Amino acid sequence: MQDILFDFIAKYITLTEEEKNALLSLGLFRSVKKGTILLKEGQITRESFFVLKGCIRKYYIIDGDEKTTAFFTEMEGITPHCAINNAPSEYFISCIEDTILTVSNPDMGAEINAKFPKFEIMCRILSEELLAKQQINFDEFKTSSPEQRYLNLLQNRPDLIQRVPQHQLASYLGIKPQSLSRLRARIFEKEKN
Amino acid sequence: MQDILFDFIAKYITLTEEEKNALLSLGLFRSVKKGTILLKEGQITRESFFVLKGCIRKYYIIDGDEKTTAFFTEMEGITPHCAINNAPSEYFISCIEDTILTVSNPDMGAEINAKFPKFEIMCRILSEELLAKQQINFDEFKTSSPEQRYLNLLQNRPDLIQRVPQHQLASYLGIKPQSLSRLRARIFEKEKN
DNA sequence: ATAAATCGTTCACTTAAGTTAAGAAATAAT
DNA sequence: ATTATTTCTTAACTTAAGTGAACGATTTAT
């Protein structure tokens, strides 16, 4: 199971056995059931999450209903905003599947970084990549209609459409569930002809 | 003029005179006229831009028309995606006002970082802040209607509404210029009553 | 100073998303 | 297994955005 993590890391840096053991000794791994809430609005955590297997979701509750703004699947992670600025979280994070993830805090990060400077490098690369991806996603979102956004998603993350409930997908696309349903029917009609 | 930059840096780290001089010796500063295009689609640059005074804008040309996705004003900067992954740029960057900015490349960054490790720290903080801000903006965009987005902008960056042409603002809000015009009229009507 | 180009607003019309409600289908709970 | 809950779809109606076009107003170019 930890191999998943090591395979991922291997894409960026090469680890010795010693380094792998140091990582394992931190007790990062956690297995959580579908439905578990990892972070609640108003709560402050110092923990970062990284998904090895499964899917977690970030959502706000605005005027009583959920607004999903992100999904994290295999090899994707999130450091909640509240872990950075020590303010109460504005959003929730919950598991939409049984999920295996690593949970880390800044102290663990510091410990590892001090022992193995390589890690710092990997973290820098990862955060650069993340920022770039984030910006492209945002641009794509802004410049597309809901229908285009759905078609993009179908192209780029077809797995999400399978594994995520549609009303959550809808708000991820910035629309209401009924609109997504209609939009899908519309696309299906077009395809038939 | 360089004081603007040093004042900004002072918020994060303290610089000695020696360090300031080292920075100045890189010849970072550039003054550009309104309308200048700093980066074109298809072009590859290694340069990053940081605005000291003025305003620059990032836009795509999709099906022949411009889609503005970001503005950068005082104390905001952008490292074009193409400078990171060495691929042709997908977008343009141009000045919408006479602008004073710093232009840097990775080599200059490396030079400074090697001489003064403090810089690395500042860069890490800045990029963390940026990522966080970016994510919040994205979430806000996704969970709002065009009208709410306009009202948010009026709250958070009222200057932009003054200094940016409205058809560019419109695409920044994800709508057409005519819709922005109408939406503004609508808000104005509501306010009257 | 004048002509040309760009920009902002308005209007009529079209298209798509929001809303409310109802019912079928699928999931979860007992 | 049956009930309860949640999820998805459909429909009718409302509201807002997209589209195409016209017309001043403003800015830019000459």
For the structure shown, list the relevant keywords.
193 residues; DNA-binding; four-stranded antiparallel beta sheet; globular; alpha+beta; Jelly Rolls; 51% helix; homodimer
Question: Which segments of chain A are poorly predicted (pLDDT under 50) over 5 or more consecutive residues?
Answer: none
CATH H-level superfamily of the domain at 2-115 in chain A: Jelly Rolls
Query: What is the CATH C-level name of the domain at 2-115 in chain A?
Result: Mainly Beta
Show the largest interface.
Answer: A-B, 27 and 27 residues
Count helical runs of chain A. 9
Strand fraction of chain A equals 15-25%
If strands are numbered along the chain, what order do they take across the biggest sheet of chain A? 1-8-3-6
Cα(first) to Cα(last) distance of chain A is 47 Å
* Assembly state: homodimer
Chart the SSEs and their pairings.
The structure is a homodimer of 193-residue chains.
Chain A: H1 2-10, H2 17-24, E1 29-32, E2 37-39, E3 48-53, E4 56-62, E5 65-72, E6 77-78, H3 81-85, E7 92-95, E8 99-104, H4 106-115, H5 117-142, H6 146-156, H7 158-163, H8 166-172, H9 177-192
Antiparallel strand pairs in A: 1-8, 2-7, 3-6, 3-8, 4-5, 4-7
Chain A binds a DNA duplex (30 and 30 nucleotides) through helix 9.
If you had to describe this structure to a student in words, what would you say it looks like?
Two copies of one chain form a homodimer. Chain A has 193 residues and is an alpha+beta fold. The first copy, chain A, has a domain at 2-115: Jelly Rolls (Sandwich), CATH 2.60.120. The first copy, chain A, is built from nine helices and eight strands. Chain A has a four-stranded antiparallel sheet. Chain A has a four-stranded antiparallel sheet with strand order 2-7-4-5. In chain A, strand 4 and strand 5 (65-72) form a beta hairpin. Chain A is globular. Chain A binds chain B through residues 60, 62, 67, 69-70, 81, 84-85, 91, 124, 127-128, 130-132, 134-139, 141-143, 171-172, 174, and chain B through 60, 62, 67, 69-70, 81, 84-85, 91, 124, 127-128, 130-132, 134-139, 141-143, 171-172, 174. The structure holds a DNA duplex (30 and 30 nucleotides).
